[in-house]
Design brief:
alpha/beta, 26% strand
């Protein structure tokens, strides 16, 4: 098969299109013929180096978010046949530890991620454990399904599970046109909340408005003051922030007394300062999301496949166009997901 193989760390030149042996499914595996695979920030970070996930080894095939057709199934796999349309949950664990037994493979000490530290979807075929595949209904395009796994499962956990968004609340969403925030805006609106979207360009804010955001703010605006005005002086109930250091203080200061900040990323830096007095006097809750669960992944798919939600895809590239795909993904002008098609 053809695959995009990473052999070093650096720019796009460390990844090349090669012919390698087709993967062979084990007894409990499914072989998926990849139809589309989304490019994620982790793919860029691990291409640049150093590796982020433990267990990463070169050579490596990236690509976490896979949708395609079942090509073959192992002898012990029931319920799937060649031609079935599927999307893959990229996270799995050892399958036997207490975390895995609780449906939390993302916290397994031996966590494995398709395209993260095992072979992924930037190839014609990928082998995955059968328990990771989910059927895609006929009304959902496979390219659309490939934009779901990482971004939408992360947004679901941040917004629905950890953030516990509720009808009537005001939710501040940072970097509102990123893949995960596009999902978060829609999930918050689905719950009946009002959304304040913060982004860095008119085009990104226009997208947020189209997704239902109620207040649109540029990064360079006085976000805290605008949120106070919008909420009658109270502040936001919930802030969703995966940007990190650059927006941390703004997100905290925008909250009402008793408000919640959910943090699930550190794109602009990992080190922040925190006023303990500000947190305990105002009764704020600072919540880290941790890894999504198998049940949350399935619930996210059920919600999406049920209708009323949509992905935003910026562009699609062939495997021989990977440098252009990386350039698009690394551009600050990027809006939505970048897809690679074998």
């Amino acid at each position: 098969m053809k695959a995009l193989v990473q052999t070093g760390f650096g720019g796009p030149e460390v990844v090349s299109l090669r012919h390698i042996a087709d993967p062979v499914p084990g007894p409990r595996d499914v072989l998926v013929r990849v139809r589309a695979c989304a490019l994620n920030r982790l793919d860029v970070m691990q291409r640049r180096g150093p590796a982020v996930l433990p267990g990463f080894r070169l050579p490596h095939i990236a690509g976490m978010d896979v949708a395609g057709h079942v090509a073959a199934a192992g002898d012990e796999v029931a319920g799937y046949a060649p031609g079935d349309r599927v999307v893959v949950d990229p996270t799995h664990g050892c399958g036997t530890c207490p975390r895995c037994a609780a449906g939390e493979p993302g916290h397994c000490a031996a966590v494995r991620v398709i395209g993260g530290n095992t072979a992924g979807g930037f190839a014609e075929y990928v082998r995955v454990p059968a328990r990771l595949v989910h059927r895609v209904p006929g009304h959902v395009d496979l390219a659309e399904a490939a934009a779901l796994p990482s971004a939408w499962s992360t947004a679901w956990r941040a917004t629905v599970t950890v953030g516990a968004v509720a009808a009537g609340e005001t939710v501040l969403v940072q970097a509102a046109a990123s893949g995960v925030s596009i999902a978060a805006v829609q999930l918050a609106k689905r719950a009946g909340a009002r959304v304040v979207a913060v982004a860095g360009s008119d085009a990104k804010l226009a997208l947020a408005a189209d997704l239902g955001a109620d207040l649109l703010l540029h990064n360079d605006a006085d976000v805290v003051a605008a949120v106070r005005r919008f909420t009658g002086g109270e502040g936001a109930d919930l802030a969703l922030d995966h940007v990190g250091a650059a927006t941390w203080q703004t997100s905290l200061d925008s909250l009402r007394a008793g408000g919640r900040l959910v943090t699930f990323g550190n794109t602009t830096g990992d080190e922040v300062t925190l006023s303990l007095a500000g947190v305990y006097h105002r009764g704020l809750r600072v919540l880290g999301t941790g890894a999504y669960t198998e049940a949350e992944f399935a619930a996210m798919l059920d919600a999406y496949f049920g209708g009323g939600l949509r992905t935003v895809r910026m562009a699609e590239y062939g495997m021989d166009e990977l440098p252009a795909a990386f350039a698009a993904a690394e551009s600050r002008a990027a809006i939505g997901k970048i897809l690679v098609r074998p």
